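Quick bug: Protease SohB output formatted oddly.
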Amino acid sequence: MNLLFEYGLFLAKIVTVVLAIVVIVVTLVNVAQRKRQRGELRVTNLSEHYKEMKDELTLSLLDAHQQKLWHKAQKKQHKQEAKAAKARAKRGEPEPTDKPRVWVLDFNGSMDAHQTGALREEVTAVLAVARPQDQVVLRLESPGGVVHGYGLAASQLQRLRDKNIPLTVTVDKVAASGGYMMACVADKIVSAPFAIIGSIGVVAQIPNFNRFLKSKDIDIELHTAGQYKRTLTLLGENTEEGRQKFREDLNETHALFKDFVQRMRPGLDVDQVATGEHWYGQQALEKGLVDEVNTSDEVILGLMEGREVLNVRFMQRKKLMDRFTGSAAESADRLLLRWWQRGQKPLL
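Here's what came back:
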């Protein structure tokens, strides 16, 4: 009986420990999942990354004896740096942070400008820690898209400008229409020689199936409260008055676009470039759409001297369905971009 009692007590202890471990694990998993759902900032030190690549290549060019000496010198340097850091810690001195920082952000645009949410988080994070000597570089690629999406994305960059943080936008491939709306907020725009720049215009199109439906004896009823609640429709019969109002709305949006570009770049002859056309890097430079012809790589390498260059990315964890729909949307965006590159224009 004694043995059974002790055995039962032992089992109870084991069950208690297992349950406690399960509770702790579940709690940690839930916390981690909530954190991932909120998203997280990932900061990459591009200065260190570049230095490591440089050291690796330098080392590969040395013979065995030279490599041994190089490793010895590096070990000595690291030891001295660690000793100096320890001494500063003992004296209660903070680590030296005199180096200005360059915060590198990335924006790869889609038709709905879905990356604006991540850009918002990145800009907010940079504003929270940026010092007066810091600056921001945005690597931008976008053919444009919906007006409200790119308007909000441009407003996020405006936050940096309002805080007097120098902003450089680099374009390696395309910054057209809504993409250029974002770019023109910058203090400086740098374009690769054959990057597509401009397309300051607005376009909208909608198919109409009314005649087809009528031929099949299908009636469509559309009821609105407000004269211009619907101007053009997909299924109903469009009127000349509706078409005229639709064109007026497009022209108004175009005027707002032009005014925005003019405010951001007052020296630009907006009327000359706001024709919906696009230009390549060197042509864009001649027209005043950009300030320099160069690649983003050279811009960032040029800023590394005497500065700490950090890449900031906000990573949002996607649910399984979001991953599927997101992949489908990205495929559609790539298809639309190919059409655009064959002569079509983006929405904005």
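Actually, after a second look the formatting is fine. Confidence is low (pLDDT under 50) at residues 340-346. Closing.
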